[in-house]
Structure formats: C-alpha cells, structure tokens
Amino acid sequence: MSKLSEDDIEKRLLQFPEWEYYEDAIHAEFEFDNFKDCFSAMSRIAFDCEALNHHPEWTNVYNVLTITLTTHSENGVTDKDFKLAEAIEAIVEPEDD
Ligand SMILES: C[C@H](O)[C@H](O)[C@H]1CNC2=NC(N)=NC(=O)C2=N1
C-alpha cells in the first residue's frame, strides 16, 4: 500500500468534504448531540478498524470526535486511509433514503 501523491489525495478528498489534508494525514472533526452518541460511534468505528486492520489517531472531548488518518508504515496517506474514512462516514453521516 504505497503513499498517495498530494494530487491524488486532493482529488479523492472531493468525495470527502468533511476531511482536510495536511501534515501527511487526513483530518476530520465530528460533533454529536452528547457523549453517549459520540462514544457509541467510536465503538462502531473500532470494529471497522479491526476488520480493516487500520487504526486512527483520535481524541474525544465530550461530544466531539477528532480523527487523523495516516498510514504509519508509509509515512503518509494511502488507500487504507480512504477505506477507513469511508467506513467512518457511513457510521457518522448515514445517508437518508
Ligand atoms: C501489523 C499491522 O498490520 C500494522 O501494525 C498496522 C496496523 N494498523 C495501522 N494503522 C495505521 N494507521 N497505520 C499503520 O501503519 C498500521 N499498521
């Protein structure tokens, strides 16, 4: 899984409006109604991390979850980070249908 170029990252980020690229990582912040909803989302995300064998750097303060995704072994952003970002989006911003 090799490190993506800055151009590739910016192109792929067009599909991820909540995410921003800087310092060799993609970053997002999500706000929930309360701690319970936030931590519940974190628990669900954790299962996907294990399934994908890819893990975030994240912090939680009450109802806010801050996430940084990077591939440590590549010192940059790879397809694995986008796969995990997609899984996170499906949990925190489910599409209405
Ligand atoms: C052995 C295992 O595949 C590695 O330690 C994985 C696990 N999760 C990981 N997560 C992230 N974000 N970067 C990695 O390089 C990484 N490596």
- Share of β-strand residues: 15-25%
Element string (H = helix, E = strand): HEEHEEH
* Number of beta-strand segments: 4
| Estimated structural class | alpha+beta
Assigned CATH superfamily = Transcriptional coactivator/pterin dehydratase
How helical, in percent, are the residues?
40-55%
Query: What Rg, in angstroms, do the CA atoms define?
Result: 13 Å
In CATH, what is the class?
Answer: Alpha Beta
CATH fold name, please?
Gyrase A, domain 2
Q: Describe the global form.
A: globular
Sheet having the most strands: 4 strands, antiparallel
Distance between the termini: 34 Å
Q: What is the spatial order of strands in the main beta sheet?
A: 1-2-4-3
Q: What value does the average pLDDT take?
A: 96
Report the CATH architecture. 2-Layer Sandwich
- The residue ranges in which pLDDT falls below 50 over 5 or more consecutive positions are none
Give your account of this protein's structure.
41% of the residues lie in helices and 22% in strands. By secondary structure, it is of the alpha+beta class. Strand 1 and strand 2 (25-31) form a beta hairpin. Helix 2 runs antiparallel to helix 3. Residues 53-55, 71-73 line the site of the ligand C[C@H](O)[C@H](O)[C@H]1CNC2=NC(N)=NC(=O)C2=N1.
